Amino acid sequence: MRKPLLATLAAIIVAAGVLVLDPIGWWSFQFDDADMRGAVEGNWSLTVTAGGKTSSWKLAIKQGNDASAQRSDRGWIKSASACGNRSFVRNASACVDLSTMPLDIAVLDQPGRATGTLEVSGMSFETGFLHIAVGEGAARVAVLATISSNGNVLESDDDTQTVKLVRTSALATRAASPQ
After folding, report:
1. What integer is the mean pLDDT of 73-89?
2. Is residue 9 part of a domain?
3. DSSP letter assigned to residue 169
4. 8 A C-beta contact, residue 85 and residue 70
5. Which pLDDT does position 65 carry in this prediction?
6. Is residue 175 one of the residues assigned to a domain?
7. Long-range pairs for 81-87 at CB < 8 Å and ≥24 separation?
């Protein structure tokens, strides 16, 4: 008679703990794709100086589709290509919560191709990593920038190149986000 009472009491304590802790964000993401879009979508100016050569681009960035994650529309269930990609990576038995958003990047001021992603590590979005690659082959330039949740570039230089990355205008994406 004592064991069922203890098991019931233990279950109630665990359930109460989950209800108390979850609303404060211990097991819930505190941001969504609209927050990530708000940080990155818009027009950007990128200037890279490496090896004495300076190159500049004007870019338009918006949420993209991850082509590798798309499914065929010939099956019973159609793909939802408009969603951001959130992946969880298990490393050495420790779970790292990583939200990844593929980006469509248009080069506005010259012929060229650009690709990119925005990655946010953790359950809240304070900073993220903006990966941008412009050009192809030997002319390809890759940039990694740390940005804040409001789209300010916090750091973008590395040991081999000097990078100036500035968002010149933002898109109003928060109000348009379906819930």
Report:
1. 48
2. yes
3. E
4. no
5. 85
6. no
7. 83/33, 84/33, 84/36
Least Cα distance to 123 among 158, 149, 144, 104 occurs for 149
Q: What is the residue range of 17's domain?
A: 1-28
Pairing of strands 85-91, 162-170: unpaired
Reading the block at residue 130, the tokens are: 């903006």
Pairing of strands 141-148, 127-134: antiparallel
Helix (H, G, I), strand (E, B) or coil at 174: coil
Q: What is the pTM of this model?
A: 0.69
pLDDT digits (tens, 9 = 90+) for 85-140: 565 555 555 667 889 999 999 999 998 899 999 999 988 999 999 999 999 888 89
In this prediction, residue 116 carries a pLDDT of 96
**Integer CA distances (angstroms), 60 to 103, 141, 165, in order:** 10, 17, 12
- Cα dihedral 63, 66, 72, 75 sign: negative
Number of domains in the chain: 2
> 138 or 9: which carries more pLDDT confidence?
138
Q: Which two tokens stand for residue 8?
A: 């019931």
Give which of 164, 130, 167 is closest to 152, Cα–Cα: 167
Residues 127, 54, single domain; the answer is: yes
What the block records as the tokens of 104 is 């469509």
